Amino acid sequence: MVLQEEKEGDPVRRFILPLAALTLVVLYFASILTEEGPVRKTFLEPDASVVELEVRSGGEVFGFKKEGGVWKMDRPVRWKADGGLIEQLIGRLKETVLENPITDKEDRYKDYGVDGGGDYVKVVSAGGREYTLYKGRRGPKFSLVYVRSKDDPFVYLVKSSFADSLPTKRDDFRDKTILSIPEDEIREIRWEAGGNSFAVTRRDDGWYAGERKLQAEEVSPYVARVTKMSAIGFPDDNRLPEGAERAGTLYIEAGEEIRLDLYEKAGEYFFVKDGIPYRIAVSLKNGVFKEIKGG
User: Fold this and answer.
1) CA 201 to CA 153: how far, in whole Å?
2) Would you state the pLDDT for residue 15?
3) Is residue 95 domain-shared with residue 120, that is, in the same domain?
4) Quick check: 7 pLDDT over 50?
């Protein structure tokens, strides 16, 4: 009877031993997970708010800053940046997991191209913290690349999605928007080229070409194309090529008159807006300088 009472009242048997057993089970499974690889960590925290970005890629150094919610390029040229492409790069940096460590030996850094003398990405957060990632050579598969974080001695083999999003030419991340106007603000579109001219005008009951009313399916694609136009690049030194000749002019009435002069040289076309030349696709030129025949 005494033995039974001691057994039932023994706290070691009733509480401590089961708790110890549970702890051992947790530690066992934790050790298994740990043996599968290092703890997953990303180069950039998912909630990091990025305000500056510096990239060395393709032999060029690119600099970007976020001011008033708008991304601007300050190197190699000063221009409004393509915010969509920058945010895409930042998103992929946040998804870059530093796993699969290769080595932490400094004398091997150069073998993998991460000694700091090649391409890199430097990010500055709103709090002033800097993150630097050195991009090395491609891995065994083209979809992989060797990297090293400035704050981590290890070389890692990671997915190359961020590397595939880096700019390599000075105009890659430059905003190429020529026009972006709400369609309902446009009152008239007209052009002159090669001795010809054409105009469409919005009235209260629809669009007209002269006195002929246009069907919506005739004019809507044309208006949509004119109101949102993007360049494919910029000429060297932001100047028209020597010998470029004026080939036409596009006028858009949207509260005020917008004028785009068309220039051509050797089959390449350029729109000049506010003194800035934009290289445009031939398909854009043909799609704008055309007449809507209708039925």
Assistant:
1) 65
2) 54
3) yes
4) no
- Could you count the other beta carbons within 10 Å of the beta carbon of residue 173? 24
Domain termination site, one of 143, 164, 185: 164
Q: Which residues of 124-150 are buried (b: 16+ CB within 10 A; e: fewer)?
A: bbeeeeebbbbbbeebeeeebbbbbbe
pTM of the model: 0.76
Whether residues 192 and 159 fall in one domain: no
Distance, CA of 57 to CA of 264 (rounded, Å): 32
Same domain, 157 and 184: no
pLDDT in tens, 240-282: 999 999 999 999 999 999 999 999 999 999 999 999 999 999 9
Structure tokens at 136: 């090395």
Tell me what pLDDT residue 26 has: 45
Spatial separation of the C-alpha atoms in residues 280 and 146, rounded to whole Å: 37
Burial 230-259 (b: 16+ CB within 10 A, else e): ebebbbeeeebbeebeebbbbebbbeeebe
| 2 pLDDT higher than 90 | no
State which residues form the domain around 228: 177-288
Q: Does 210 map to a domain?
A: yes
- Give the pair of three-digit tokens for residue 169: 């030419």
Question: Of the candidates 98, 111, 95, which has an alpha carbon nearest to the alpha carbon of residue 154?
Answer: 98
Cα–Cα distance between 77 and 276 in angstroms, integer?
13
Residue 31's pLDDT band (cuts 50, 70, 90): very low
Quote the Cα angle for 274-276-278, to 5°: 125
